[in-house]
Description:
Helices cover 69% and strands 0% of the residues. The protein has helices at 2-13, 15-45, 56-61, 64-75, 90-97, 101-135, 144-168, 172-183, 187-192, 202-207, 228-252. It is globular.
Amino acid sequence: MRAFNAELSKLFSLPGIWLAFLIGAFAPAVITALDSIAQKEEIIAGVSTRLSEVGYIGLGLGVQGVIILGVLAVSSEYLTESSESGGGQQITTSLTVVSSRLHFLLAKVGAVTVISILLCIVAIMTTVLATHLILGEYAPAFEWSRLIGAVCYWTFTALLALGITLLTKNGIIPLAVLIINSSVVSFSVLLYRVTKLAFYLPDRAGAEMFMFTSGTLTGSLFDRYHTPFTGGLVMFAWVVVIFIVAAIVFHRRDVAS
């Protein structure tokens, strides 16, 4: 518990963490607001076809906050401190205080998980508010099962970011790749043109927990391919595998070098 509290304290002391909170809390609402305005125009024109997806799209595209959170949780350990602080790395101090590397990683995973869940809850609140303010009586009813799926998606995404950063010891590459994949162009969308195995990539499978509810199991890019449960299992499996590999590498790696 002391290691967990220490990880929470370290995270809240990072300047970049407040940017993660700001983006995580309001990016989904902004995306939802823009989508809601477009949907309202379509409703007036009588051609609206995606009303049930309003809000969930914002939650799917607005995960950058937890990506930053997961990356910062690890990359901050490898930053070289100022000469006044000795010029070392935080990871050396962390492993001196917490002798077990496994306990250290579990404490970090626990801290990221708790913050991700809380941040997603805030994002859901701002997203629902934005939807009702703009669409009014046309606002869709949000389903608890889908909202819980969104929370799982955000949490798993943060843990994937943590695991990949732990493997690379560098925050720039995973941060760039994951943010581009979640906001600019999805690699699963590109790979779908080549193979249906793209549906088993973590972002696409995880999105099944709360998006793509229309249509049948046809394999169409915008229809459901997995059930919400199996999609969640696929994404969770990715998290477990990446964390195990990262933990093994971290255990064998000379972090002091």
